[in-house]
Amino acid sequence: MHIIHFLSQHNFIVPAVDIIHRFISKLATKVSYSPECKRTYEELLSALRNLESIGLPSLLSKSGDSSFSVSWFLRGFIPRDLPTFLMRFSGFKYRLISSIISRSFLKLQREVYHKLWQPRCKIKVQQDLANGITPSILCSYKGPTVQPFRFSSPQVALSSADMPLSPLQTSEWASL
């Protein structure tokens, strides 16, 4: 099931939005804290909230169509334009920006795991049990396309030259 569909179906959109808002606020705070930053906290926060690659604008829209990027973002993919965007706004070098993003993103992922994925998994298990699907059934199920692996190759007759290599030959081959 697509994450955004599941989130909206089970009222997880609000926690997802809150988590992303906190991440953006922390990022804006860390970047704007430096005297080298070219923008105020409010300007940076507003610009980050409107950054399409994070997907917050589409998640907040009433249309019900959430962007694909927010799904990837919640799964742990950092948008490619986020470091460039922050470098342009802050004046920082890539090394510092990537460090700030990485630390903030790890905290975001922990929060996503505890506040979205764990509750989602509990709901999924409850739904499965209500439908008579047990964990053992899930483990034993093989889809219709799963077939045992068969390795077919012509039979090869080994000659005396196909004997195991001596230690000296092995070391010579390893050094190549």
Features:
single chain, 176 residues, mainly alpha, 9 helices, disordered N terminus
Walk me through this protein's architecture.
Mean pLDDT is about 75; it is low at about 1-5. Helices cover about 60% and strands about 0% of the residues. The protein has helices at about 5-10, 15-30, 40-50, 55-60, 70-75, 80-90, 95-130, 135-140, 165-175. With about 180 residues, the protein is mostly helical. It contains 9 helices and no strands. Helix 2 runs antiparallel to helix 3 (about 40-50). It has one domain (about 5-140).
Global shape: flat
Number of separate helices:
9
Helix content: 55-70%
Average pLDDT confidence is: 75
Topology:
Elements: H1 3-9, H2 13-32, H3 41-49, H4 56-60, H5 68-75, H6 81-90, H7 94-130, H8 135-140, H9 167-174
Short account of what is shown:
The protein has one domain (3-139). The chain has helices at 3-9, 13-32, 41-49, 56-60, 68-75, 81-90, 94-130, 135-140, 167-174.
